[in-house]
Amino acid sequence: MSGVFDSCFTTPGKMMPLDEARQILRDSITPVCPPKKLNLRQCCGKVLAEDVIAQQNVPPHDNSAMDGYAVCFEDLNPDGETTLPVSARIAAGHPLDRAAQKGEALRIFTGAPIPKGCDTVVMQENATEKDGFVTFPAGAAPKKGSNFRKLGEDIKTGDVILEKGRKLRAADIGICASINQTELSVYAPLRIAVFSTGDEIKDLGQDLPEGCVYDINRYTVMSMLESLGCVVTDLGILPDNLDTITRALKEAAPHHDMLFTSGGVSLGEEDHVKAAVSALGRINFWRIAIKPGRPIALGEIGDTPFLGLPGNPVATLVTFMTIARPMICGLSGRTDQSTPIYKIPAAFELNHKGGRYEWQRAYLKQTETGPVVELFHTTGSGILTSMVKTDGLIEISEKARHIQPGDLVDFIPYSEVSQ
Question: What is the DSSP letter of 253?
């Protein structure tokens, strides 16, 4: 993994535009985990390491899309009723042992193979059967091929049905089952060690002395990482002691694909985390033109990347979703690294200074003309309830100056950046 962040360490001290930072990440990050074969049932949520190529057609034969009668379209009278003898019954899994003859109808059920000689299925709701004959009204089958599913209509042999880098969902597992794909090559999950530092930080269940706070960020970060499919090691809260922090990072680095923390590492601070990472490898800061968020610390210990996010709870979550998540997706082998954005009308007015990207917390409101987004009433980086009571982030471009009601704004749903 050595050199993953090589291009990250050439940035000058000026504020880096967000688009530039995103481009560096896209160009720099490559998968770091080895592929492995897993049984299909174990693959949901994993990242595909090889294209899946169909070795057979789906459906494997012509079949009926519904219960009805298989006929030859030419036998149907377009101007009046048609009556045909019903000469056979075809159920799913029980194909007819002969070709169909002109002038006959075959009772057929959904999914049953359609014999040669038939090219149309009349749905049973448009048919009346009596004494071995079936009668169809004019227009019972509006066109040739009605209710007829052709061999290979969904998938043809040789089709690439899933591409490398896709995070597999339930529907993907189903489509692999349809072509008898019993196992897949997927990337092993990223192994990430997470820790906090600070004598003022206390773990849950401990007493809270005056001047101290509970460790929020470690729990939110670990939860976000696990929702992305990572295997997380909790290193806990490391005391403010250089030797202890250095030893912990040195021991963890060889066994993990990334080291992750928030707070305690900032431009110009002589803190122990910064000193420990620098002593074991190297560290740099990206001063990205964004709000919320202070400089983001990037480094390496040996071949293992180190990432330090801002310490305020909201800033931690926002920069995780918009900066760290694309990085983690790339290291995991995913190709969908970009932050998903939707255009939604604004239900607010906002003046923006410009010159930097800004993320505002917002919630969706349903109106008679569709959804709109409304800003949360506070912008404080320490108000974590603002992330609980909203639905996503509005991304405001560095070029934006004024937003008024009805303008389309870029909306990032939390649900889209938590998986």
Answer: G
